[in-house]
Amino acid sequence: MSANGLYNVDPSDPTPIYAQLERAIRFAIATERLTVGDRLPTVRQLAVDLRINANTVARVYSELERAGIVETRRGVGTFVCARDFEALPRGDRKRELGLLADRFLSDASNLGFSVDEVLDYLETRRKRKR
What we know:
The chain is mainly α. It has two domains: 17-83, Arc Repressor Mutant, subunit A; 90-129. It has six helices and two strands. The protein has helices spanning 17-30, 43-50, 54-66, 84-87, 90-110, 115-129, and strands at 70-73, 77-80. Strands 1-2 form a two-stranded antiparallel ribbon. A hairpin with a 3-residue loop joins β1 and β2. The longest helix is centred in the last third of the chain and has 21 residues, at 90-110. It is globular, with a radius of gyration of 17 Å.
């Protein structure tokens, strides 16, 4: 699996790269972009894809393994073993949702949509999906 679009790290962000990557992986699991049994990229591949140090990726994988989020099978790879609701602590999930909403509303505003227009559209879509 490529890191393109799934894991985002921003070197200009004051948050350490390892924290950004850990949060991105947990968020991918929490939003079911990664599910139980999915294989994560190798340490080397993810480091190359994200242009970060392989030791940083290895540290994140180790911390996620200690937390019970992923498991490493020697010679096979690293796999998701936590369910989506287990991946992010409740406070982190709310914070991530807030960040997501802020980005979404900012993008919508840049396209000329008001918050009310966005909410009306989302409500219409929600009703349609029921």
